[in-house]
Design brief:
heterodimer; A: 76 residues; alpha+beta; 4-stranded mixed β-sheet; B: 355 residues; mainly alpha; 16 helices; globular
Chain lengths: 76, 355
Amino acid sequence: MRIEVLGSGCAKCKLLAERAEEAAKGLGAEYTLVKVTEYPDIVARGVMSTPGLVVDGVVKSQGHVPTVAAIQALLR
Amino acid sequence: MTPTRCDCAAPAPVRGPGFWTSGGWLLAALPAWFLIYLGLKPAADWLAFRALGLQAGSRLGEAVAFFAYDAPKVLMLLGLVVLGVTFVQTFVSPERTRDLLAKRTGAWSNLLAALLGIATPFCSCSAVPLFIGFVRVGVPLGATFSFLVSAPMVNEVSLFLLLSLFGWRIALIYTLTGVTIAFVSGWVIGRLRLEKHLEPWVLTVPFEASAGGKGPAGFAARMELALQGTRDIVGKVWPFVLAGIAVGAFLHGYAPAELLARFMGKSAWWSVPLAVLIGVPLYANAAGIIPIVQVLLAKGAALGTALAFMMAVTGLSLPETVILRKVLKPRLLAVFLGIVSVGIVLTGFLFNLLL
């Protein structure tokens, strides 16, 4: 799966990227993780509040950092 | 304070664990919270004057007693307030606010935006996508600015902290004037028809209005999110709060009572624009700045001057200006900063005159 972490690089975006990585590894799934930091790219994905989590093109969460367990539920 | 700070908490599409394990125990712990809170003052006096053997009325004794009382008090209040606020905010999201504002026009849209700004979670690091999201679904430019001014300046944290530390009068004054400044400055910007001073990409970039993630399911999930948000926020601001109280304790014990009266008192009219000039580039949230305001007031600063300083610090900031430059051409950015600053200065003058 393709995991995208949307955000211009504030502390919360980095935390979300770390947790998403941990969650994906925990599931043992094959994945690629991309950080989307440019505003036009963030806007094009329909995310208004960062940090955002997009999985295979679908917005899964925005405006907060879910826990690792919660991210795993979103990835499944 | 750090420019990239981001104190947001918003709904999560998360199904959490059961009621008790996730936060129900906190409701049960509320009575204990109140008992401890009531015991803080005697405990602080005991610590300063008995355990440490300091003289009551001495400078050091009063400073230590002030810190020992104020530090746990403000942190306990902050914890409770932020927990309640982040819980309520799981019911609100910028996406919902945007949809509420999308079909409005005229002054009513500015008023509604300023009011929704109180309750909507917002952090300046997502100001650009939020700005574009608002403008592109048809929220009037003026209403977007009303929201941008109100959201960081007036929120539940500022409201409840001011309420518990300074009483309902100051909390009400701050909130009402904050909303008024947001309302008026957004309305003026709307009337000036400055749409052509948006950076062109704002209106041309491929855009999609998503509805956002699913809402959290049930009390447990909301509580879990609120707890996490509280840990994040309190974990980040407590050093600043303690630093503010330490400065306050020192001034409380050592500074003469009327130290600031000459510089920040009513008679020094220039102190209002000066406080705004100093406050605008600074960035701190309400929780960090309120302990400082507490000291300013105690040492003779006029209420209007202190409130203007707090509004300038929370409402406008250098990092936010840099971020907004990506969507606003210099002229519109200058108009925005100018109108809001003038609004805050006038408010400061008004309250120094009235109170």
